[in-house]
Each structure stands twice: as structure tokens, then as C-alpha cells.
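FW: tagging you since you asked about this chain on Friday. Here's the raw sequence from the shared folder, copied in full. Didn't touch anything.
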Amino acid sequence: MTTDDKIDDRLIQFAHRLADASGAVIRPFFRQRIEVAHKPGQYLFDPVTEADQGAERAIRAIIERDRPDDAILGEEYGARPGTSGWRWVLDPVDGTRAFITGRHEWGSLIALERDGVPVLGILDQPVLGERFLGVNGRSTLLAGDSRTPLKARACADLGEAVLCATDPSTYMDAGQQAAFARVRAAARLTRYHGDCYIFAMLAMGFVDLVIEGPLNRWDIAAVIPLIEGAGGLVTDWTGAPWRDGAKVLACGDARVHAQAVALLNKA
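HL: got it, structure written out here
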């Protein structure tokens, strides 16, 4: 993105309005006895709640009222076309399994794309009061009145790395699990679960690489500007730019990324 292409403050503040609206809907449902429904599909249990659905409705209503020419893609209510070249990609509760079990490892994902390229990403954890913003080549943690620039840490060797993944046994097939196991065996420490929150920890410098199976666009679009703004990279397992439905490899250091790609694709 060139200087002339930078996202202006007006759009950034609009994105914050969307995150505020989402959090206002979600917070009252957390750690409450709420109805949990199942979305039929590829998983034995794919939960959805009124927090997911109500938050997306709130975000979409603001976009439709104030930016009616923008397209929208959301996990709960699908795609709405637009004419402006901008698209908002929404996953109001990424990590619903954590949400319904009372854990904090979830967040609201809000991305803005320009002609299909993610240029702004917010990962908001409204209960903890943490908002991670990636835009214009920088990443920042906003918490209360504090603003903390984010920087992924240097890690030259996979043997020194912390690896995270949500749940390989659920989200990867047998061949993908075998490839993941090769990286896990080489890493210093591996931790599971966390959904979008583990990407935030990579941007903060506490995690060195995240490996996930195939993801939908709403699962990853907001994370790409966040990781890249912290100096990291997000690709598919071959090292190519991520595309819809591809497996995800996110790293804070290009050296660890190269080692992980080699192991993931080892014959």
C-alpha cells in the first residue's frame, strides 16, 4: 500500500464504532446461561448463540445505514454486494466454543478489504477491554487509555519457538495432522486452543507461529493486517499468499516461517 492509499482516520474511527457496537451486544451474554444452537455443516457440533447473531446484526445495521455502498461478508448472515470497492468482513464471536464455556479466548473480528485485500483489521476482546488494531502497516493494542505498539519477536530457529493451534484433531484431516506433528516435534513448546486470540499473542511477541487448518475468510481477514503490522507474515502452508479456504501459517519471523513451510510440505 502506498502513502496515498493509507486508510484515513475517518474509516478507522468507523471501524471502532463497529467494534463498540459489537461489544455492547456481546458482553451481557458472556458467562450467562444462554441458548446454544448447532449450525449443521462439516462439524459434529458447531455452536452459535444470540451473541454471535445479535452482534453481527448490530454491525451490519450501522454499515447499511452509514456506508450503504460497501459490501459485507459475515459468518452468520452471509454476503451483501456493494459498489464502492470496500468490503467489511465480520466474525462477531470467533471462538464460540470458548465463549460458551466461560473462557476469554475469543474475540470479535472486523476486517475492511479494498478490492479483496485486507487493509484494516480489528480483533476486539470486549470483556477484557483489549482491542488489537492493524492498519497502515502498524499494529497497536488499545486498552483503556493506553496505546501499545505491537512487534512480533525475533526467533531464528524453530527449536526455540512457541507454536499454537486451536485444535488439530478437530480442524485438520489425518494428512494435515501428520504435517502439523512434524512442526510440533521441532518446536520448543506447543499450546492448543485460543482461536483468534492466539494470533493476537503472536502480534504481541508471546507466540512465534500459529498453524491452522482450512479457514474461512471471516476467520482470518482481520488477522492479516494485525500480524503484518507487527512485522510478521500470514500465508498458506506452502508459503504462498493466503486465499479463501486455505490452511494458515502465521509467523513472527521469516526464518521460522521458512522452516515450518519445509516441514509442513516434507514428503
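FW: Residues 9-26 form the longest helix (18 residues).
HL: agreed, and The radius of gyration is 18 Å.
FW: great, closing this out.
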